[in-house]
Write a structure and sequence with these properties.
heterodimer, A: 271 residues, 2 domains, 77% helix, globular, B: 152 residues, 3-stranded antiparallel β-sheet, 41% strand, elongated, transmembrane (chain B), TIGR02588 family protein (chain B), membrane (chain B)
Chain lengths: 271, 152
Amino acid sequence: MHANAVYGRALARAFGGALLFSFPLLMTMEMWSLGMAVERARLLVFLLLSLPMLLGLSYYAGFEPTFRLKDEVLDALAAFGVGFLLSAALLATFGVLGRHGLFSQADLGKVALCAVPGAIGALVAGKQLGEGSPSSREKSEAGTLGETFLMAVGALFLAFNVAPTEEMILIAYQMGPLQALLLMALSVLLLHAFVYRLGFPGESRRREAGGFLRTFVGFTAPGYGVALIVSLYLLWTFGRTDGVAPHEIATMTIVLAFPAALGAATARLVV
Amino acid sequence: MATTARSRPATKSAPAKRKPPAKAKPPSDDIPPLEWISAAIGLVCALVAIGFVGWDALLGERSPPAIEVRLTAVTPTPHGFVAEVDAINHGGSPAAQVVIEGVLSGQGEAETAQATLDYIPERSRAEGGLVFEHDPRAGRLVLRAKGFADAS
């Protein structure tokens, strides 16, 4: 029973984390309409990708201090459940669900889309809201692959918060090519500064030894690459790229890559 | 790991009853029942979401929106007759910004009212209202959807 009580507390924390991380999205109108309108095949791909991502995240920041595969799978599934149930409960409370008949495809899409950020929040909460950080030892040992994975999750998470909004497209329309390049430079610069210069907790010091060029090529450049890929993927998932001219897609990707780069840079802080 | 560390002082003061069952299994393998339950619930949620979305993505038909507009109730108000309508999309794709129109004839000059519904998913229903000066029940009311925008 003692173990149950401990797990129960961890679960309650997970709900708290999911709530904190996903309520901005749950209260965003675009998320509701996207939940209905997103092409089902893309939503399916998104959901199928989210499960291995949660598994990986559980490995680095699970809400239980364990490192075994069975636990990671259980944690990842529980986190998805937390995100899903929380989204369903809150969206129902907000009166978003049930407008087109009970249990429709549209409602399921809304809940499923919001469940993923909620699940990320549930897993991250283990570290953010929990006492101590059981996974810090592991994270300092995370290899290049793990590092890249964490950056991708950080990028996804921050980009997801703004990707559904109309503003992303509007900003892309308003910007000229010069401004796009400027924003790109700013993103890379901030990514580098956040990781190596500002002294946030959790930033990596050991790679600094290689000098500016090495850290830039070894971390900042791949970090921005990850941010660009994540941004493009999100835009595609939300159907923002359909029928749009290539240069406009590029500008939109650069715009979204700005928050994504910040997310990648602070991944160690947030995730 | 932390669990065993924390329970150690408890086993010292409490009767040593708790220790044997914990020791009986290897300590690394005792996953609390609650964890299994919540993971099972999570699995069901994931299967429901992926199952329904996948079923729709792979097998759902993709016919264009076909919108039927149906009168549900007429309420006389001081500001005109409110005709509540249901717009039902029988097609296999969602429609956005659906313009519905009602033409009331039979009482002198024909009267037109229209409304725009934000979104009607496939095989779903949305509600709206049309306001007329004359009683729609007395004349001939023709309801139809005039057009829509592609969703997303």
